[in-house]
């Protein structure tokens, strides 16, 4: 039964990240997920200091707040003339350092493990369960990630056209009266929510892999957003299943194997994509040369 919960948790994480990652890839902002996942550390530390508990709700609120702060600072620096990659690097390293300092200064009061926050351990997910009225309802991570996925699906489905247009052509979206900045921050908020929800299962760093690799593979396989979302989620779920199987066989890190499996699928898409794959491009060049 533990294998089922592990795979289900991985599939939920991959689905949340894959959907949001598609929009980040289209906006050429893939690494902002890395920035948010590191920048929320001071929010986690402050939430623990204020609440005295590692309850996921308090962690989520604290991390989401600092996720918004990180996005606001990145956008402020970008609008002030700082290059995009530089602004991302400055914000996430500075906020991450603040979180490390807070934890080190309050080491006696903060029962947090940086390795757990960054790398996670999905193998332990079944031990922290949700109990209501004495009934065991399964791992808390599954419920939290399931709630996060429902929120993501609800927001994206309700405002699909707006997210699509602001991702492909923000200038046209602004001309049509769509509040581009609002949907930008909404997307960043969802990314923050997905990152924090995944801390206890796969860790912040590995979330970045699931946030980028499945959407990048889907991007190579289709030129339409709808199919790209479906393919991205499928790649993420297959990566979770294959990664768990590989981890059991190799006795290795489960979360790491899941991301490695996603990398293998991306490599296959890069080579075999019928339109954008390396082999297809070489055949096209050979025909043109002939």
From TrEMBL:
It is a multi-pass membrane protein. InterPro entries: ABC_BtuC-like (IPR037294), ABC_TroCD (IPR001626). Its main location: membrane. One of its GO terms (cellular component) is ATP-binding cassette (ABC) transporter complex. It comes from the Bacteria. Pfam families: ABC-3 (PF00950). CDD domains: TM_ABC_iron-siderophores_like. It is found in: Cell membrane. The chain crosses the membrane at residues 6-26, 31-50, 56-74, 86-105, 141-160, 172-196, 202-221, 228-247, 253-273. Gene3D superfamilies: ABC transporter involved in vitamin B12 uptake, BtuC (1.10.3470.10). Keywords: Cell membrane, Membrane, Transmembrane, Transmembrane helix, Transport. One of its GO terms (biological process) is transmembrane transport. Belongs to the ABC-3 integral membrane protein family. This is Metal ABC transporter permease.
């Amino acid at each position: 039964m533990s294998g089922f919960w592990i795979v289900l948790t991985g599939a939920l994480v991959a689905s949340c990240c894959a959907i949001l990652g598609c929009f980040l890839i289209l906006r050429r902002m893939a690494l902002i997920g890395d920035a948010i996942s590191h920048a929320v550390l001071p929010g986690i530390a402050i939430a623990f200091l204020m609440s005295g508990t590692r309850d996921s709700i308090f962690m989520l609120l604290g991390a989401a707040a600092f996720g918004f702060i990180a996005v606001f600072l990145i956008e402020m620096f970008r609008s002030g003339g700082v290059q995009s990659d530089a602004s991302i690097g400055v914000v996430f390293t500075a906020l991450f350092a603040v979180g490390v300092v807070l934890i080190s200064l309050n080491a006696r009061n903060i029962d947090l493990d940086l390795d757990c926050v960054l790398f996670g351990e999905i193998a332990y997910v079944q031990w922290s369960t949700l109990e209501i009225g004495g009934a065991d309802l399964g791992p808390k991570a599954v419920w939290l990630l399931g709630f996060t996925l429902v929120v993501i699906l609800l927001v994206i489905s309700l405002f699909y056209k707006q997210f699509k247009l602001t991702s492909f052509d923000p200038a046209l979206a602004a001309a049509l009266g769509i509040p581009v900045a609002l949907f930008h921050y909404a997307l960043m908020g969802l990314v923050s929510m997905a990152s924090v929800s995944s801390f206890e299962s796969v860790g912040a760093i590995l979330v970045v892999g699931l946030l980028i690799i499945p959407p990048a593979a889907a991007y190579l396989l289709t030129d339409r957003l709808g199919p790209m979302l479906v393919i991205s989620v499928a790649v993420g779920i297959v990566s979770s299943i294959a990664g768990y199987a590989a981890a059991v066989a190799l006795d290795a890190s489960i979360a790491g194997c899941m991301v490695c499996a996603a990398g293998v699928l991306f490599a296959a898409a890069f080579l075999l994509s019928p339109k954008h794959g390396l082999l297809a491009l070489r055949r096209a060049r050979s025909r043109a040369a002939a």
